[in-house]
Write a structure and sequence with these properties.
The complex is a heterodimer. Chain A contains 13 helices and 2 strands; from the N terminus they run ααααβαβαααααααα. Chain A is mostly helical. Chain A has a two-stranded antiparallel sheet with strand order 1-2. In chain A, helix 2 runs parallel beside helix 4 and helix 6 crosses helix 7. Chain B is α/β, with parallel strands linked by helices. Helices cover about 35% and strands about 25% of the residues of chain B. In chain B, strand 1 and strand 2 form a beta hairpin. The chains are: A mainly alpha, B alpha/beta. Chains A and B meet through helix 7 and helix 8 of A and helix 2 and helix 3 of B. Chain A: Its main location: membrane. Chain A: Pfam families: BPD_transp_2. Chain A: It is found in: Cell membrane. Chain A: This is Branched-chain amino acid ABC transporter permease.
């Protein structure tokens, strides 16, 4: 019985939150890694692109709610997503046309593009704050739980309990669909294969007649949609606040680097590695340990490696360790 | 050889201020194999890149099937039936053999499966390895992927930049045999080679370039028999 209680507590506080957060990071990392693979620079504006997409989706959600549209028990933002996608894609394509393309045509070094993206990051973050403000916002509606902690307790009669939130289920399902679709697109379609070819060997892709501007356009569209999806899922799960999304940039890039920058297959395990590192290192194992250890062995401390305030340091440490010992990432990207 | 199928005539040009090509002429008849040989730095690869349009010519012209293509971009020449196999990085290493061939056929909107079958018939080992990443293959097999990719557009002219660089002598013989097979299907072949003696043995026409200009020209057999060519360029 005690092992069961330990497992339930672990699932409630580590497994479910870690998986959900891992999915959100994976989607963010996928967008960043695709841009890196094709355009060969780290897009620092990716976190604020997530914020922009989420903001657009929230604005559309408000519109739909005002019009009385609802898909309860599912949250309204799900049907607002297409508006968020469209707005973010337009924003990102306009940015490429006005900002990145002139530099690309001059064949600048990739560090120039990185610094350019830093500028784009400030502008985009500023726009988001002008439109929607700097405050914390909850925009999830519909049913909050698939089952609550109290329901689980009455079903099982265990001392510990677990709640399954709607946002967690939506995040995991949406990530599975998005990743599955992206994999199919990249490995089965002519356009997807041409993108991999371009990422692999640009000169040979040109010799084969692959149009570089088309590849660049498609990668921006995909990256904008993935960023929006990642941002909306994160916001549904927790809340939307522009500064938090800017801070997501670090774990997102850590996930992409762990998975191997430029390698879409690596982004998903990379997201999970970072998410579970953050959750495991900042979780207090006291409760789990007290169920597992014999009477009288109960620990006095919290059994917590780091305070939750330091979780960003965990992703930073993982990032540094990977860059030191395996700079191409677990799944061999293009970082070297 | 008054009106050859492909000719780069009196080509002059280079990458910077100094010319690498000093009026050299390279020509090849339909369905034949022409080979460019010469010492290091003679401009062999540069001459072929000029024929393919990867180098702007200051003087001279390139004609394909009687048509002047001097001003066309490489991509436009691909659309006109030319295919180029670079010396290095000539495959998509992370993609499977079959995907490499598909990318070769990227510009084709028709059904290219029969072309793929022809490539597999020409290079049977590629059929066995078609689900394997091209980067995992041996040097000789990679060269076969590279040539196979170029053949997917069903080109009339195939340009090969040192196809046997870095492969063992046995693999080299094998590759030359395959290149003869390609030429027999009616594809015109122009290649640059370091292994001059072996390359001239299969050449219908050979060009010895020195400092960007034609030094000797003849059939492969004539050049191999020429005592001066033998002593200077073929090591006796």
């Amino acid at each position: 019985m005690d092992i069961l209680n330990a497992l339930v507590a672990f699932a409630n506080f580590v497994l479910l939150p870690g998986m959900t957060y891992g999915c959100q990071l994976a989607l963010g990392a996928l967008g960043a890694t695709l841009v890196y693979g094709i355009l060969r620079f780290s897009n620092f504006a990716h976190g604020d692109t997530m914020a922009f997409g989420t903001m657009a989706t929230i604005l559309a959600t408000w519109g739909l709610q005002a019009a009385g549209v609802s898909i309860a028990p599912l949250p309204t933002p799900l049907i607002a997503l297409p508006f968020g996608f469209a707005a973010t894609v337009l924003m990102v394509l306009a940015t490429d046309r006005l900002v990145y393309r002139p530099y690309r045509n001059r064949k600048v070094a990739s560090i120039t593009l990185v610094m350019t993206s830093l500028g784009v990051m400030f502008v985009m973050g500023g726009l988001v704050r002008i439109f929607i403000g700097v405050d914390d916002r909850q925009f999830a509606d519909g049913a909050r739980f698939v089952f609550t902690a109290a329901q689980f307790r009455t079903w099982t009669g265990l001392g510990e309990t677990v709640a399954l939130r709607t946002a967690q289920v939506i995040t995991i399902v949406a990530t599975a669909v998005a990743v599955g679709w992206l994999h199919w697109f990249l490995t089965r379609t002519r356009t997807g294969k041409s993108m991999r070819a371009f990422s692999d060997n640009e000169n040979l892709a040109l010799l084969s007649g692959i149009n570089p501007e088309r590849v660049v356009m498609i990668v921006w569209v995909l990256s904008a949609m993935l960023a929006t999806l990642a941002g909306v899922l994160y916001g549904l799960d927790k809340s939307f606040r522009p500064i938090t999304y800017f801070q997501l940039l670090l774990p997102v890039f850590a996930a992409a680097v762990v998975g191997g920058l430029g390698n879409p297959l690596g982004a998903v395990p990379g997201g999970f590695v970072i998410a579970f590192s953050e959750v495991l290192f900042t979780y207090s194992f006291k409760k789990v340990a007290s169920y597992l250890l014999p009477q009288g062995w109960q620990p006095e401390g919290l059994l917590q490696f780091l305070a939750t305030d330091y979780k960003i340091a965990v992703s930073f440490a993982v990032l540094v360790l990977v860059l030191l010992f395996r700079p191409t990432g677990i799944f061999r990207g293009k970082t070297a | 050889m008054s009106n050859p199928f492909l000719i780069g005539e009196a080509m002059r040009g280079g990458y910077g201020a100094a010319d690498i090509l000093n009026g050299c002429t390279i020509a090849v008849e339909k369905g034949e194999i022409a080979v460019i040989v010469g010492p290091n730095g003679a401009g062999k690869s540069t001459a072929m890149k000029a024929v393919f349009g990867m180098l702007r010519l200051r003087q001279g012209s390139v004609r394909l099937g009687g048509e002047d293509i001097t001003r066309l971009q490489p991509q436009e020449r691909v659309a006109r039936g030319m295919a180029f196999v670079p010396q290095t990085e000539n495959v998509f290493a992370s993609m499977t053999v079959e995907e490499n061939l598909e990318m070769g056929a990227f510009l084709r909107r028709d059904d290219f499966r029969s072309t793929m079958e022809q490539v597999y018939a020409l290079f049977p080992v590629l059929r066995d390895k078609r689900r394997q990443a091209a980067g995992e293959l041996s040097g000789g097999q990679r060269q076969q992927v590279a040539v196979g990719r170029a053949l997917m557009t069903e080109p009339s002219v195939l340009l090969l930049d040192e196809p046997t660089a870095g492969v063992s002598p046995i693999v080299m013989d094998e590759l030359f045999d395959r290149i003869i097979d390609v030429a027999r299907t009616g594809v015109t072949v122009l290649m640059v080679e370091q292994n001059a003696r072996q390359a001239l043995e299969i050449a219908d026409r050979g060009y010895v370039l020195v400092q960007g200009a034609n030094r000797f020209t003849g059939t492969g057999r004539e050049l191999l028999a020429d005592p001066e060519v033998r002593s200077t360029f073929l090591g006796g």
